[in-house]
Amino acid sequence: MRKNFKMILEFEKPIIELEKKITEMEDYARDTGLDLSEDIKRLSRKAQSLQKEIYSKLTPWQRVQLARHPDRPYTLDYIKYIVTDFLELHGDRYFADDPAIIAGIGMINGERVAIVGHQKGRDVKENLFRNFGMAHPEGYRKARRVMNLAAKFDLPIISFLDTPGAYPGIGAEERGQAEAIAKNLLEMSHLPVPIIIAIIGEGASGGALGIGVGDVILMMENCWYSVISPEGCAAILWRDNAKAPQAAEVMKLTASDLLELNIIDKIIKEPQGGAHWDHEQSASILKKHLLEEIHVLKQLDVKELLQKRVEKFSQMGYWVDPEPKKRSKRKSK
Amino acid sequence: MDWFKKKKGISTIEKKALPDGLWIKCESCGEIIYRNQLKSRMHVCPKCNYHFRVNSWEYISYLFDEKSFAEFNADIQPGDPLKFKDKKRYSDRLKDAQKATGLNDAVVTGIATINGQQVIAAVMDFTFIGGSMGSVVGEKIARAIDKSREERVPLIIVSSSGGARMMEGALSLMQLAKTSAKLSQLSDEGIPFISILTDPTTGGTTASFAMLGDIHIAEPDALIGFAGQRVIKQTIGQDLPPGFQRAEFLKKHGFIDIIVNRREMRETVSKILTILWPQKSAAGEQKKKENKE
Ligand SMILES: [Zn+2]
Fold first, then answer.
1. Chain A within 8 Å of B239 (Cβ-Cβ)?
2. What is the DSSP string of B8-67?
3. What share of chain B has pLDDT > 90, as a percent?
């Protein structure tokens, strides 16, 4: 359970301190031969309950921090634990291969699947290579190509969402970032195979949604998903990036908010302390749900599947429609 | 997403110096133009060809045949699903915008004709919270697409929008998916969709329906893009090349079919429709529709 984390969040510190103490006691007991097992047990219980307490009242901003935790499992980590015979496929066939998006094929418990997902890096070097999980148009087009491949050979698609946003750069605009995302939204709306979306970290706006249209949307417990990042929202509405925690509060971007808003279908529990405490367990929990969903969706015939998919997104939103056709309609002059 | 950015080159002092609002100064070349003349020229500067931003009803009067536009779904009202509050309550922002514009939200949808040919239209309005797309915009556009598909009538969307509306959070984001999903159905039915992109069309609007037309028409010099210029500048730490994200830039890079002067927009759209969806097939379309029913 105890790990060497790259980063410790402020609210995790008391837990980590306790864990450290436990380790020290264990070492001391081993070195001296003293029996400290009762004390260690007591401290362990205390650590557990402390963690439970802290995590039972996380603020939206703390969830955002967890979603960004550099020790969190990324797409390739989930693939490692969930998918066998994974074969990564590269390139959009037009311009380049974008390492910020993973695409490939493989097996999950005997089910043939196609996988797409954003990929962040774990250190500076890797992050430069992965562009911090911020995709260019060629990334979205690679994903589309592999999803079309999946449709052609009847493979269900699993898409992992985890990005701070589509990359805002000159080349990205020149090569049509907006068009690449828009095309994916349209194509994913009518691909004749089941599509399961799993939000595993950050779901920032169009950059996330660009591979996020599907039949079922699962969301890990400590993730965020919204129209803009809290920092971006704060910069525009408060004209102050530092107001990000307040922005996170009002944006309704956590998993439970989104379940209430009917945007996601299911919240996936993370191991205590968050997914970064145990990659393997996180993956095995998610895997169970993915398999369940695949089996359910495979029962539907294509027509029903697609109809339900469009309906799903059609009902999203909030508006008031007072008895249509009652009032006189406005005419142009 | 720069909704609150001031328009370039027009200061309040200059505005005040113009008597009675009878005259208006071109934001691009500075020419003083008689307001009525500007209207008769569809808000295109006679001297420099600058395309002024116009609201939805003005655009409707310029693009469609006189008195042909009949609005539908006019009464759909926005709400405040997140109880969103920054410096101001979203519900107050909505009220203010409604009062200032006389609109319920940032898009007007209806049925109209262009040179006698029937079309379904959605015209966005930048004066309503920056033309931002929240649930109502998404829903009204989705219904317009449905209508276009059911009636087998070509669809025209005129975009002018800063992108998705922040104050409805993820619900706004989902409107990108909703409208695109509806367009996939329209596309499967083979009914034409002409996307007209005016200044500005950015963010989530560009990343959904605006970039999904069979034909993409832009107005000259319109700002069209995904990311905001300030964000890009901050990210890459250097200045942006001249003309970046303008209509001509997008055409050069292959994302716009044609750039058309507003004063020729009606004729151009009409020409496209005559070729893609000729009037003479109207009877045939009627039959197809009946067969479906
Ligand atoms: Zn001018």
1. no
2. TT--HHHHHHSGGGTEEE-TTT--EEEHHHHHHTTTB-TTT--B----HHHHHHHHSPTT
3. 86
| Structure confidence by residue, pLDDT tens digits, B265-274 | 999 999 999 9
The answer, for A252 touching chain B at a CB cutoff of 8 Å, is: yes
Please report which confidence band the pLDDT of residue B19 belongs to, taking 50, 70 and 90 as the band edges.
Answer: low
List helix spans (H) across chain A. Answer: 13-32, 37-56, 60-67, 75-82, 124-130, 137-152, 170-174, 177-189, 205-209, 230-237, 244-251, 255-260, 279-299, 302-314
3-state class (DSSP) for residue A18: helix
Give residue B87's pLDDT: 87
Q: pLDDT band for B24, please (50, 70, 90 cuts).
A: very high
Whether B184 contacts chain A with CB within 8 A? yes
Region B19-28: mean pLDDT is: 84
CA distances from A122 to A125, A130, B196 (A): 8, 9, 43
Instruction: Using 70 as the pLDDT threshold, list the residues of chain A that sit under it.
Output: 1-3, 323-333
Q: Does the pLDDT of residue B291 top 90, yes or no? A: no
Length of chain B: 293
Contact A317 B187 (CB under 8 A): no
Q: For residue A152, how many other CB atoms are within 10 A of its CB?
A: 11
pLDDT in tens, B157-205: 999 999 999 999 999 999 999 999 999 999 999 999 999 999 999 999 9
Q: Where are the domains of chain A?
A: 10-57, 64-314
Residues from chain B that touch A181, judged by Cβ atoms under 8 A, are 207-208, 226
ipTM: 0.94
Residues 72-131 on A with a CB inside 8 Å of B are none
Domain extent listing, chain B: 20-52, 54-292
Residue B96, C-beta contacts closer than 8 angstroms, at least 6 positions apart: none
Nearest chain A residue (CA) to B253: A174
Q: Hey, are the CB atoms on A170 and B138 less than 8 Å from each other?
A: no
* Token pair 């493979």 in the structure block, residue: A155
Task: Indicate the CATH number for domain B54-292.
Answer: 3.90.226.10
Instruction: Give the CA dihedral A194, A200, A205, A211, nearest 10 degrees.
Output: -30
Q: CA-CA distance, A189 to A31, in Å (whole number)? A: 62
Token pair of A198 as six digits: 């799993």
- Tokens representing B108? 């007007």
Q: Which of B88, B89, B71 is nearest to B80 (CA)?
A: B89
Band (pLDDT 50/70/90 cuts) for residue B286 is low
Q: Is it the case that residue B155 has pLDDT exceeding 90?
A: yes
Question: How far is Cα B197 from Cα B55, in angstroms, rounded to an integer?
Answer: 14
H-run or E-run covering B172: helix B169-188
Whether chain A has a CB inside 8 Å of the CB on B253: the answer is yes
Which DSSP category does B75 fall into?
Answer: T
**What integer pLDDT is reported at residue A204 of this predicted model?**
97
Class of domain A64-314: alpha beta
